[in-house]
Amino acid sequence: MRLYDVSFSTDSLRIRVALAEKGLADQVEFVETDVSSAAHDEAAFADIYPGGAVPILELDDGTFVSGVNAITEHLDNLDGSPVLTGATQKERALVQRMQRCAEQELLYALGSYFYYGTPGGSIALEAFQLPLWDGRAEWAALERERAVSGMHYFDGVLATQPYVAGDRFSMADITLWSALHVASSLGIDEPPGCESLRAWHSEMCQRPAIRIPA
User: Fold this and answer.
1) Is the dihedral angle over the CA atoms 168, 104, 177, 20 positive or is it negative?
2) Among candidate residues 38, 187, 194, the one with its CA nearest the CA of residue 113
């Protein structure tokens, strides 16, 4: 298999953690996509996936799979023993629900805050910054507040169960961890009082697949 990704992409990081958790890194060839030169928007890459979004997984038969959920679903079921996306219908539903919640309330909110409320950080990343517009700062502040509210929500969830989607580690945990990773890079820490979230985060950072992704 071949994975087209970007080193600083949160979605790519989630896939790499999943690969490490499943022990599949040696079955994948990693192809770094140079987004700073807009290579991922060139015609050849656009033929793989319109819009040029990464990560994209190319299977051994030439099929292309895009999107974190689709890629992890495929990887998790390669060995017939899914552990990251849910082993039962109920588990799959809960993992998808909580992963979507972590994306919407944290990852997407933090993305908006980055786009509208920060200077960028590097030439490559500045290419993704949106132009100035009236209300930009106010919108960024609202999105930052939404992300912090999301942290409070997940603190409540983790006060009653060991993992985001229940009793087992899953893609929902990887997604929430990656959101907190982004938050930290933006100078946003877990708010005071979120002891359950903080303890969970500390435990996640000790997992081998998170310490050393694929």
Assistant:
1) positive
2) 187
Summarised one tens digit per residue, pLDDT across range 12-65 is 999 999 999 999 999 999 988 765 544 444 555 566 665 667 899 999 999 999
The answer to pTM > 0.85 is yes
Neighbours of 134 (CB within 10 A): 7
User: Would you place residue 162 in the very low, low, confident or very high pLDDT band (cuts 50, 70, 90)?
Assistant: very high
- Rounded distance between C-alpha atoms, residue 6 and residue 33, angstroms: 6
In this structure, the number of other CB atoms found within 10 A of the CB of residue 72 comes to 28
Q: Are strands 29-32 and 64-66 parallel, antiparallel or unpaired?
A: unpaired
How far apart are alpha carbons 41 and 34 in whole angstroms?
A: 10
Return the bridge partners of 166, or none.
163
Map out the domains of the chain with their CATH numbers.
2-76 (3.40.30.10), 89-208 (1.20.1050.10)
Is residue 172 classed as helix, strand or coil in its secondary structure? helix
Q: Which residues contact 134 (CB under 8 A, 6 or more apart)?
A: none
